[in-house]
Each structure stands twice: as structure tokens, then as C-alpha cells.
Automatic annotation (TrEMBL):
A Pfam family this chain is assigned to: Metallophos
Name of the protein: Metallophosphoesterase
Source organism superkingdom: Archaea
InterPro entries per the UniProt record, alphabetical: Calcineurin-like_PHP, Metallo-depent_PP-like, Pesterase_MJ0037-like
Source species of the chain: Thermococcus paralvinellae
Signal sequence coordinates: none
Residues of the Calcineurin-like phosphoesterase domain: 20-135
GO MF, one annotated term: hydrolase activity
Amino acid sequence: MDAEKTFENLSIELETSKGKTLIFADPHIAFEPLRGLRMRTKFERKLAGFIKLKNPDFIIILGDIKEPLGVNPFTKKLLIEFFSELRDFEIIITRGNHDGKIEEALRHFENVKVVCHYSIDNYLFVHGHQNLPDVKFEKAFLGHIHPAITVRIGSSIRKTKCFLRIENFLILPTINPYMEGFNIKDGIKMIPFLKNSKEGNVYLPDGTYIGKFHLEPQPL
């Protein structure tokens, strides 16, 4: 796996009033035991290395920084190791549904803040599992549903992660290369403020525009 290219394709970079801002979603650190993997991927070390290579001025993580709902010793160890590598960066985490008790592991990291939502320059950042906050914005970024579609490549058909844009909302895929995504038609139902959306535009991680996809059942 070319980790740098993979992480590059599964994240986005914006210029904000904070400077070069790196945004990604759903790392699910410490996912291996709960996903039935017998070997450690050391994914979080590769991700930390990518972040340091990119050297952003600001980082926004769109929730689900960890996989377990609580904080067991293994999870806490990995989180401390991960954020210890990133002490030189200002980091915002928009709390996800997997981020319960996250402060227990991060209380010694003054550069990391956990919030329900974050706004800057008319951009809104949320995880996506709750209703929208009462704030004004022009564009919003979220994760939560790990969007993916099934595409035909040559003679083969395979599932691939994607970015899903619905009006002024952009949903990012999970940055964890070892985790599959959810079909967008099923996943969209898990976002309260987008669950009734009728269609969205789909982009592959390399930026290729796939087209407009219907998100609700079509009449026969």
C-alpha cells in the first residue's frame, strides 16, 4: 500500500484563515480487535507520518477518532502514541458517535480540542450523526457514513470508497484504508439532516467525477 497516496486521496486540504487546513474523517484507531483482525496494521503510525509530511497549519478530524465506544487500555495507548507524534499541530476533533470518553485519553494534549461542531470562514464541520447545529454556513463537511459505491472497472465490479456531495454538504470517506465503506443509499439514512436526500454527486478518491446517483428507490 502506498500510504502517502492513499491518505492523500482520502483527505482534503483547504485554505482557511488558519492557513493550510488538513481535513479527514473516521480513522477508527484501535479498530483491529473489534473488526476481527489478528494482526496489527499500525495504521495510526502511518497516518501520523503522513500528517507530519503534509505539515498543515491546522487539522480537523471529522469524528470517530477511535473504534471502541469507550476507552480501554489498548485504545488509550494507541491514542496517546498517535497524538504524541502530533504535538506540534493544532487539532480539532468534531466528536463522533464512537468518541465517548475521548477526553480521558487526550486530557494532556493542550493542542487537541474535542467539540460537537466547528465553524470557520463560513465552513461548518461536523461528524454527521446528530442534527445540524444552529449556525450559518455556506459549505459543510462531515463523515460518519464511510460512503462507497460499486463500480465496474474493465470486466470487474468492485466496491470503492467515494466522496459524496449533496448540495452544499461534502461527505468524506473513512481515511482508514483497512475499513470498507457503506453503500451510499444505505449510509445516507444514518445522517438525520440528509436522510431524505434524493440524489448526490459522487467522486472517486482520485478526484474522478462518477456522476449523479439517486439515493432513494426508483419506480419500476
